Structure prediction request, 915 residues.
Amino acid sequence: MDIFLQQLINGLVLGSVYALVALGYTMVYGILELINFAHGEITMIGAMVALAVIGALTLAAPGAPGVLLLGAGLAVAIPVCVALGLVIERVAYRPLRHAPRLAPLITAIGVSIVLQNVAMMIWGKQYIPFPGILPQGRHEILGATVSDVQVAILVLAVIIMLMLILVVQKTRLGRAMRATAQSRQVASLMGVDVNRVIAATFAIGSALAAVAGVMVSAYYGLAHYYMGFLLGLKAFSAAVLGGIGNLGGAMLGGLLLGLIESFGAGYIGDLTGGFLGSNYQDVFAFFVLIAVLVFRPSGLLGARGAERA
Amino acid sequence: MTKRPPRWLAFSVLALGLAALPFLVDLGMGRSWVRLLDLALLYVILALGLNIVVGYAGLLDLGYVAFYALGAYVYAWLASPQFGLHLPFWAVLPLGAMLAALFGVLLGTPTLRLRGDYLAIVTLGFGEIIRIFMNNLNAPVNITNGPQGINLIDPVRLGAFNLSEPHRLFGLTFTGIHLTYYLFLLFTLLVIFVSMRLEDSRIGRAWVAIREDEIAAAATGINTRNLKLLAFAMGATFGGLAGGLFASFQGFISPESFNLMESIMILCMIVLGGMGHIPGVIFGAVVLTLLPEALRYTGDWQRDLFGHVYIDPADLRMLLFGVALVAVMLYRPAGLLPSTRRRREFADAQG
Amino acid sequence: MSALLTVSGVSKTFGGLQALSDVSLQVNAGEIFGLIGPNGAGKTTLFNALTGLYTVDRGEIRLEGVRLDGRKPHEVLKAGLARTFQNIRLFAEMTALENVLVGRHARTRSGVLGAVLRLPATRSEEADSRARAHALLERVGIAQHAQRLAKNLPYGDQRRLEIARALASEPTLLALDEPAAGMNKAERSALRDLLLQLQADGLTLLLIEHDVKLVMGLCSRLAVLDYGVKIAEGTPDVVSRDPKVVAAYLGDEAL
Prediction:
């Protein structure tokens, strides 16, 4: 029972981070039908910048409270990532809006490679440890252990997602975003400045990615120039699992993927009579993803509109 | 029309050029570039295979490398000390290609209802699953030897002729990589020939029709299910073939050679070159194979310019590679050598 | 007169929407049969059901006695029912000639081996397809565009190309979804001539059309759909005087 609860908690925490990154993919996809392949790298840059700021501040002001340092790190990482997201959109995607469908995918891959290598040149190839500024408290709940960091990630992720829902449902910007996602042409005829909406979408997605990047590095205790690749891949899978283009779907898909991974790692040995070990956890995750898509080709919450002939 | 040189002349010049190429490269640029030439040919085969799936049929496949891996592993299993089997090259290679084709159909079947990016993520998933299995199937029964990979794979042997050893012919010394070049060239030409014939056929037109409008294609009498599976199978066949050649050439394979980035690179080759257009795809494959290596020279340029190497060329080259991908797409969104209709119109007016 | 197409009791719902309810009609061999009705009446839905794009919930569709319902689109085409689309669905990046050649797919057989080796059978099949395709382009009057990309053709010619593509499959029944939409007067009259000529050659036509004048002039019989229900069937004269039809077109207030 305690293993079950432990995997549940781990899965929810990991899943909430996936959800934050998946939201960035899904928002961009909803409006541009573009896989923003560089999104995972923005997450990585967020983590790297925050770590650099925290590292510098710990040297400059030893003994400053950890929460303050973390806040400072985020306060720098978020605008950097937002700016980066905006530049990428302007330079690599906007000129290709009417190009063949795969062209922006290739520029996205190019940008992704550039960001990885720039990060590698700045921060090196080694793993960068997350400084020990965070509370190390651990709590026992019904035989499972929860750390302060896990609680913080979960709470923060939920707050951010609620805020995002509010923005999309209640504000003028949110309305413009939804209209643009329905039809770019109609929205622009209705007086929506489509370019601004798209820019705003990239800005919001990049901000979420920055936060998620810091969360991941805090959770695993390290950052690395290559961390964005797998994280981005999983988050994109989560977005597709939930039904790409659908915000609720990204959240659901993220949580599910986190749970699948965590339970997969915990139980795959039992399920296969010991034949497959926990190193197959990714197989398990992809397998569930494929199975879901085969039976629901548009994801769990994706539009299933009949193909119009 | 009279100004055009006769076809046989153009062909002869091309053939001579291709035959002399490894020696010219060897003299001018060094042995390592001949090796790279061999690799470039391998990537031309891979890119033309993926081109059938993505370029013609319009199915975005991000797991293509799985078929490459299968071909390589089949070759390694049947011609290495791993299981003590040493079957001859001409028997193993088609077996690997056929098994890859079978897997193409098997993996393709559940994806038939998926469109666009959903298909991309599922094929990506299949690719990763196969790689993870290759990585972990060393226990409880050792099949793949896990992350260490399989070593001492037999080189290509035709009778008593060992392709990996130097031979003296016509007063020239042909080393292993020279001979490999000719072998790969042979297969590359075969794959180009098959691609060209397919493109200009009932099957090729049906693939393009599916890419352009799947519903209209179905309503025009195309069995979209079978033709998509055929595209997967044909693409996989080329992938499996390239895998077998790769294993024999390298003598060693491990799951690391078959990661997602490899699939993405092959996709970049066809998009960058000109999707669905055979010369473009060939060009893209050659350029993207050679470019990262050429960018190693950035160290020399830095020394010439500043008298000092500021940035390690090994780091810089991938950065520049990324920049190049973006730049090419921005200035030539349809690829470096997009299909020109004029040529086909001309051919049709003739025939 | 013998029935070529019989639709009996066909129903189709989308979610809660009853798109077609219990529709029955009969198209006789050699006639031009019109399907009319206000927007959203279910005409295109019926077309999609006939051609296998939608599966029907209930009912039967037969062409020359052979069941079509439950069959896939390519099987329907092979059985002899070809169609065009309301919003023109050509293969945009292929030439006009290639579009028509794709239309030959169901009537040709060569596979991968034949294509790669250019076997004699494949060569003669290909030559035959090309000859037929050129003849069809000639017939619909766009032979001069054979080598142009479909997307670059003028609008009216795109509609003709779609007809040529459908004809390439040698159908017994050709279903046209608003073939005159967006055409000017001269183009309409040319289309009219073409359709009459096709009929004279023995083809049966099923036609969705908004242009009432065109429909009344061309069709030997009509069926009228309204809210997914067939409210009338008969000769143009009879149908146009039917009070239910008048009400459907003008709204109930007119009564």
